[in-house]
Amino acid sequence: MQFEPLDQFQQRQKKLREIEALGFDPYPREFHFSHRATDVVAEHAQRPAAELDAAKVPVKLAGRLVALRPHGKAAFAHVLDQGTRLQVYVKLDVVGERAFQLFQLLDLGDYIGVSGHLFRTKTNELTVWVAELTLLVKALLPLPEKWHGLEDVEARYRQRYLDLVANEKTRAIFVKRARLIREMRAFFDARGFIEVETPMMHPIAGGATARPFITHHNTYDMDLFLRIAPELYLKRLVVGGLDRVYEINRNFRNEGVGYRWNPEFTMLEFYQAYANYRDLMDLTQELITGIAQKVCGTLQITYAGKTVDFTQWQRLSMRESICKYWPADAPPAPAVEDLARPGGPAALIPRFNAWAEKMGYEIIRAGKDITQSKDADGLITGLLFEAVAERQLIPPTLIYDFPTAISPLSKQKPGDPSLVERFEFFAGGLELGNAFSELNDPEEQERRFREQMARGGEEAPQQLDVDYLRALCHGLPPTGGMGIGIDRLAMLFTDSHSIREVILFPLLRPEASGERGPDQGTGNTEREK
User: At the N or C end, where does the chain have fewer CB atoms within 10 A?
Assistant: First the structure.
């Protein structure tokens, strides 16, 4: 990826000097507008020419030049403001010779301010008759000419500022994402939750199973971990008497990247005292259905060519989902009882792998450390679910009753210690949320922490969180808690098939070495010299 050719930059610098010679400041400090282009179009788009001519509606607005059509002593142009294009008309004998000279030195990409009145052209296009023109900033590099056809999508992510200018779809994605977050806050605020902030640097990595990023605090001479989840701090707040809390938080996980994963991501986490996972199932369904209606304007949306209908929720246990979505051409399908039987999940792997190898699908790889573990049934059930069911969960689905072996922070089900009170939320084949009846027995929590540590690995906790156990000893009331991936939910609601499409500045590899600034030299512009 390269900067624009040197001559483009130099030509615009030359125009900049000419603008300064005319006595104009190319970088003024402010501009007070009376209208946004969006409001002008919304309010006046249907008004006929005669009515506009009679009213002479005054407007003063700003925007980026995205089209220029000179016609001798007059010119038409389009400005772009908040995603809306509006035509302007500049005439020599109206704005005066000096301002018209300024206009002739403008380029696409420059920001201008105009004031005048509205009228319609002979082609009936709503237009601003410019009486006064102001340069707001001179763009020294041009906009890409064929941005929409750009094949290098990484360039769009790296230069998101250009992507937002040239691609209305990109702008719409982030406007919708912002509204999604706003509606989430409104939902929880209306139900008595309070928004809180918890630390992003932790002395002990915890709250989720993931490899953390590590940093160092010089004054304390101590290593710290960037937050992989806020869970343990939020539950400390419930111990302290904040019965309903939520946080919209940035998390960091030092793991691979893919269409569903970015090392830095945003989540909503909330906790409700005196509730369990069944209560949170109802709340989740209400939350997501309401957001879909308000953000998308419909309860039937399209994702990856398939309809996701938020009037048709389904709830399945993890074992039921494996049976329901077992490959039709890999008979016989197991029964729930087969998965509940000791050794039953492991016995299904050869059957599935024989089908997967024939069909070219990924084979389930249950290593020796899993098959010989006392938790083998639970660990393998999780692998079977991921391989068989997860990607087929197109309808909004709550998958509940997870194996205890893969749920170290959840309460066990009464009468069945192999399962916990946990559910995950799926739609469009995406995993979107994870919820528990929170484990509040400090002795049981310590035992599970120690089991995690004993299994080892980079993703397992390396230290026992003694302070969190101390907090549990002071009493965590019955509590339901949930985390929802905002980035993935934004993917679903905007029909985006990569998480990078919904993150303004996703993490990318460094640009190729040797690339330099627009002067192709020291990085200093002529103006700075």
Answer: C
